[in-house]
Fold this protein.
Amino acid sequence: DQQVKQNSPSLSVQEGRISILNCDYTNSMFDYFLWYKKYPAEGPTFLISISSIKDKNEDGRFTVFLNKSAKHLSLHIVPSQPGDSAVYFCAASAQISGNTGKLIFGQGTTLQVKP
Amino acid sequence: DSGVTQTPKHLITATGQRVTLRCSPRSGDLSVYWYQQSLDQGLQFLIHYYNGEERAKGNILERFSAQQFPDLHSELNLSSLELGDSALYFCASSVEGNQETQYFGPGTRLLVL
């Protein structure tokens, strides 16, 4: 049972354009969401997070949007740069899980930004 | 550099053997999480420790166990290894344990032959 889904395995965009990565979830108890970027042979690097009390969070070129009714979140990267080429994971946690912030991850989307 | 360290970086062993993976969290972080990333799967939560106590378990096999020591470093023990245990094992840490950013180490790549 995949509670967090990233339905696009890959995405290719031109440098300078917007990259939009999508993520859907099924568990309505999820209340904290994060995006991580991962390069080969490295651990995931935190990018940005959003709590369920918000619908948008922005940090520089990265913006995360949360649509609770649709159980959907997206990561916008503007403008995209070649160095953004990596695998992007969305992750979710539920406070109702108790005293743990265990993360449930999507399968990842490979972003390629072409010069 | 996330501040989370993991050793060893690579590990090659044979089926039936036992290995120990080590993780040191960021300075000040009390929570340590272990995740497994297999070839055909995303990151799967294994176990969470907070200040030496187990907080949550995921789909962790009975052959696997973990602990967190008084100095807050953690070890993941994998025994009776099978070919299917070959994977990347990541450790992450956070300050407390809930609704926080987790910072990941570089991972240990385990290959079971």
Summary: The interface with chain B takes residues 31-32, 34, 36, 41-46, 49, 51, 89, 91, 93, 95, 97-108 of chain A (CB under 8 Å). The first strand of chain A starts at residue 4 and ends at 5. The mean pLDDT of chain A is 94.
